[in-house]
Design a protein that fits this description.
Number of helices: 12
CATH superfamily of the largest domain: SGNH hydrolase
Shape: globular
Order of helices and strands: HHHEHHEHHEHHEHEHH
Radius of gyration: 22 Å
Strand order of the largest sheet: 2-1-3-4-5
Strand content: 5-15%
Amino acid sequence: MRKNALRFPGLRWLVVVTLCTLLPLGAFAQTAKIDSNYVNSHYELRMKEFSAQPIPKNAVVFLGNSITARGKWAELLPGVPVANRGIGGDITHGVLARLDAILAAKPKKIFLLIGINDLSRRIPESIILQNYERLVRRVKQQSPKTKLYVQSVLPLLDDMLKPDYLKNLNPAVTSLNTQLQAFAKKHKLTYINLHPVFADASGQLKKEYSLDGIHVTDAAYPVWVQYLKEKKYL
């Protein structure tokens, strides 16, 4: 190859151009890896707890990550059969992995809130939406009478956030919520925009409801439930 390259300068340039073309593709393959792992000790512990706490008949299920998990939904909805299926740190892949057990109970309603941890891992919006597609398909197939509510991903309050990887995510949150609203319309689902309750004028999580910039305070949950009631979702 070296002799031919020296004898024919055009061939040498062809080799250089080919390498320059291939290198960016290799670099892209490296950066395109997605961290979709959801299994950890906390996830496994919560799954064991769920196994010991079956979902009641005609239940209202709150499904999501730590923001959902921290809610005392049963206390806020006395007399309503409620199941809290939130797991701290969960992503859309993790919700899909545990969806069968939820749908087997044939719940009356599912209030879904998931996506912020996906965004913090820089999982592409297209992958998140694909997982939502898979989730909706399975709900319709396995429990067609269950009413699914898609709740908007909550904004963050950058000034209170400690981890750098969580900062400046609000534009991505806004973009994802725009897509989720269109997604819900496409599938004839109810989209619940929580931003009128939890976002300030600048689009950040309201300070009075912010625990650490991402999670909401205990005082936020009664307001949340009241909003769902006012909108006739509960």
